[in-house]
Specification:
Blueprint (H helix, E strand, L loop, with lengths): L6 H15 L4 E6 L2 H16 L4 E6 L13 E5 L8 H4 L8 E5 L17 E5 L14 H11 L6 H10 L12 H11 L3 E7 L9 H6 L12 H11 L4 E2 L2 E2 L7 H18 L8 H5 E7 L11 H13 L3 H8 L5 H26 L3 E3 L4 E4 L8 H9 L8 E6 L6 E7 L2 H5 L4 H11 L3 E4 L3 E7 L3 H11 L6
Parallel strand pairs: 1-2, 1-3, 3-4, 4-5, 11-12
Antiparallel strand pairs: 6-9, 7-8, 10-11, 12-13, 13-15, 14-15
Helix pairs in contact: 1-4, 2-4, 2-5, 2-12, 4-5, 5-6, 5-11, 11-12, 11-13, 12-13, 13-14, 16-17
Amino acid sequence: MSRCLPGPMEKAFNRANEMVINSEDIKIYTHIDCDGISAGAILSSMLDRLEKDHEIEFITLDQIPDIEIDNELSIFSDLASGQDLDKNIENMSTSSSKILILDHHPPFRKLGYNPALKGEFLEINPHHYGIDGSFHISGGGMSYLLAKTFGFKDLSWIGVLSAVGDMQNNLSGKLTGINKYILNDAVEEGLISSVNDLSIYGRQTRPIFVALSYFGDVNLPITNNKTECILMLKNLGIPRKNGRKTRCLCDLTQEEKTSIFSELMRMLSREVPSKYVKYIPRLITGESYDFLAERKYTPLRDASEFSTAVNACSRNKNPEVALKVLKGDRGIVLDAMKDLSHEHRRYLAERIEWVEGDDRIIHLKNLQYFNGNGIKQEVVGTIAGMILSHGDWKKPIIGFTDIGDDKNGVKVSLRCSRLLAYDGINFGNIIKKVAKKVGGTGGGHSVACGAYIPEDKTNEFLKLFDESLNGRLA
């Protein structure tokens, strides 16, 4: 592993290896999104092979303060670096109690932090070693690096899935940093094929004219218009069918893909300001990852589609279904994942129609937003992203929804075109600062981020956010 990790970080993973070896009563706490579920699946598979009894619990960040840690070894994956655990640690009284944190989010503690714990505490975070965890390693990747110390390189494919699910390939169009080394492990194991392809979602499952209609960061004549997509393919001389079978992107020849690339370049160049034209190729092409053990023309074959299926489980509060699939179950539980994915798509379509049909999108000078109260907080960001391609891509879009559970708060989710991020705007940093000013918390990626704010601070949040973008957009 030394070829990809700084020496001190590698030593930390060796120490984590010893903590696992010397523990019998183990519990995993992991995040409920695709990255967190993937991280949990890697750790659980690792412990199964080591014949270590363990439990796994899926949690959200706001649940961390309520955890009463009472296991010999507690492993936190894809969370806990940004939270103060001292109150939780006070519940641990035995000298054998141990805490291991494997996270990639900006840390709350400094390297070498030693809480008042009678047992052992170890936090491994790439930020402590000069590595940006937002782009170069996911939570699942951190869990894989521990599994690799035991020789379990065949779990590398889940590390790739977690990075894609966490959108770490979104801006560059490919996996970079430590993610690239994890990808190489998966390729060497014969588990993944990595190819440069058109960046169009649904490579394995959507008819090509349907997939093209969803192509978006920028509103084009083909956006949400299957008839225009069919006409475009006809003009390019690209057949929609192979006999009776409708063709997907994975069926197209390289020559046909080149023709689509050129046409999208032409269309996008007409729609975007000149300063963005240089970024257009990065919107259209990028690396795609096929899981070679999965059947072709299924959602599990392509990393982006697989990650969506995992997220569908989490957003319908059934992460255990995705966990079982990731650990190899391809029986009845796979049917359950398909049902959850179908329900997820149906719900999204209904909510998008509700937002658009009632003209709920309100435009400010530098942003657009909608009040999505009643929308599940787990999907308000997804809906914001899908609506963005229907409207003004030059502005970020923000969706709000009540948190519920009598917490008197609001979930805020932001999505924007990648072109704005390419131009140097990091909305994750902006939302963090603005949320803090109104007494909330926030953060995330350049193009997809969120916050939790007090319910009575929504208008102030919008005003401050809008003002913070003055002079920064095209």
